[in-house]
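During data preparation, a discrete fold description was generated, as reproduced here:
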Amino acid sequence: MAAERLFAAAAYRQALSGFRAVGEREREAGTLYSLAQTGSDLNQARQALGLFRALGWQHEAGCTLSLLGLLYSSKGEYRQAIALYGEALALSRRLGERSSEAMVRQNLGTAYRMLGENGEAIASYRQALDLWHAVGNRSREADTRSSLGNLYQSLGDPQQALDQLAPAREFFVAAGKAREEAQTLTSMGNTYSRMGQGQTGAELLRHALTIERRIGDRQGEALTLNDLGWVYILLDDWRQVRECFTQARNLYRQAGDRPAEAVALANVAWADLRAGRSREAIAEFEESLRRLADFGDRTTGAFALLGLAQARRALGDLAGARAAVGKGIAWIESLRGTSASPEIRTSFFASKQELYTFEVDLLMAMHRPDEALAASERIKARGLLDLLVESRADLRRGVDPALLARVDEAGRRVNEADRLRWKLRNAQASSERQEAAERALRQALADSDWAQTELRQASPAYAALTQSRLLSLPEIQRQVLDADTLLLEYHLGGERSFVFAVTPDRLDAFPLPGRAKIEEAARRGYRRLERSHGALARLPAADSQDELSRLLLQPVAGLLGHKRLLIVPDGALFYLPFAALSVPGSSEPLVAAHEIVISPSASALAVSRRELAGRRPTPGTLAVVADPELDTSNGQDGFQPLQYSGGEAKDLLALVPSDQRLAALGFDASRETVLSGKLARYRIVHLATHGELDTEHPELSKLIFSQVDEHGRPRGEDGFVWAHEIYGLRLPADLVVLSACSTALGKEIRGEGLVGLTRGFQYAGARAVLVSLWEVDDQATAELMKVFYRGMLEHGQPPATALRAAQETLRRQPGWEAPYYWAGFVLQGDWRAGRPRRTLNLSASTGSVHPEPEPRGFSRRSP
């Protein structure tokens, strides 16, 4: 192949001399273009571009701009490449050349990906896909699918990756395109490895390697060897790891691929680090970083810096380790905000958690607990922080109505696809039909995310937003805490974890066991506590209450006193009902002595307070949407009526004057009521109904309202209100109460906690949300809510105080002592939210309202 290229180049040079001699500028330009293609010569490509422009040949000028972009990309100069692609894109669009535009967008996607700007890369690939599909070029469409799937797998989204890779591979096999098949097999192997199926991943990669060696694709072979090395890391086969990485590096060096060689060198360094050769690893990481700096590859560079930090720490150089990991985190932070898609930002950040976790542990080893706490805050709920800042902006204002219509239509298609999936699942349809529905749903979700991303990119309000700032220790103490509140922030690490105990004037930090031990105990405890009403389940539940207390609370036992506990969990700790854990050294649960509030981060609470500060109070007090009319005609597939929710609703409404309340019961407990905007007038919104959790796609978690109208006709959308629709509400409530099952749960994302319905209501404007951790008992919930609301509306208690009193009341009633009945509800958000501006003391005859003093220990300042 190299000899053929040399022969062609020689022929082109000879022709070029002849064309110049006779002044044939048109042929001179074409020959320069061909020479540049053959020899990767930037100067010849620039000369060709100048001639094409002088001749007025716009199509050829666009092709040359694209070629220049490719040549700059091959040298690792991706910014220059992107600028050239931009010129080529504008030209192809002006000429209406859709195939040329598609090719440029595909190349743009690759350049953005190499810079770690994943949101822009996905956008470019998706635009290219649409164009290839429109012009009917299935081969190029498969190429782009392969690139997009590879990007999704690197972001830790294996299902999206396989949705793109599988049809691409199918096409390549049918078309006999061996090189492309091997590339796709490599991406699929990586994807299965990320899904925990390391042996399957290794088999696919070895298959790709066989194809590449058969056809002589040395570049592809190097890439596959590199990826196979990482799979062997997962399989703990370190001999094979170094062998693969070394072979890959040698192949890249022979090919003159300097960016890829720098990546392979970093991988060799990782293998040496894991084998205990720290000094060799340091030299290799430093050399790799020098090379990566030339190409702007900050994603690989950040992980090389993490390896460098680990190697320096292993040799006792803590300051050097701190400098390296700090630089790596700065690079990750610079890349994190490059996408307008919250989902992509969150996925990218979740995949980079290891740097932050190492930093926390390192700072604790350096005896800097205040900096370690600040580093812990950098990990937590960053996606939520972005959303809270964004939530106060009207992103739709000033945006093209056609784009807004496309966004709305994309959301409607998501609902339609999810309803079909739900019906097929309940009807126990064939696995083929259910899998087809799943694929259609994933495609609808991807389309909706892209439409939302386009909206943010086009929104003047979004462009004006500034990033939220994370809090330091003094800021947490000043902006979040008060004298009656103790912050317990948990950070789970690999070998050891930590709990930070913070008051307005003190910080203590204590080591805990590693993540695996704590999360195993937390998940076991959750399962036992949610079943604790069974006679045979009481002792195991009590054992878990004590075990978790020893693990999580014993180190801070001397600091608890009777303070309110603001708990920032981590990982599986979000599943725990902390109220049920034993007080250290006692058989009493934590709720016996403490109010308990949950927040995904201290910074998120501060941002929420700041964003909602000065909001005008709502005119009404309480809106209740409860006791929906459910369609039970489907037998076991239908939702069963909530026997006690109607009585619960009436009890709550009786606490509020008629002009201060909204009662939407029975047929009126509908999707239309929730989405109508009526609930925005009330300080407290109470929703008593069924809920359905989707842990894979949290935006599809839903609340179920009346499924039929008063004439027995089916309601639109089956009465569902999806979490992604809740994000679109305007709901300036102090408190939202979800008296439904498992509404606190969602998809667990590293660094974000559980993403589900709760986040939707916080985005919509709620200061605090009361939610459940498991399938709550209908009768016990009705009783708990009655006591809870009386505490707030008759006795002036803030929600955290009222919740504690209600849980205490319930657990002391015979038959309801088990945590299953009372511990499932947790308060998330601001404990100051929902504090009555005045206490309702209703006279049976007049319904008059009399103000009462607030309880001691709480500020009279409005929330």
Remarks:
- Residues 63 and 88 are 7 Å apart (CA to CA).
- The radius of gyration is 30 Å.
- The longest strand covers residues 620-628.
- Confidence is low (pLDDT under 50) at residues 837-863.
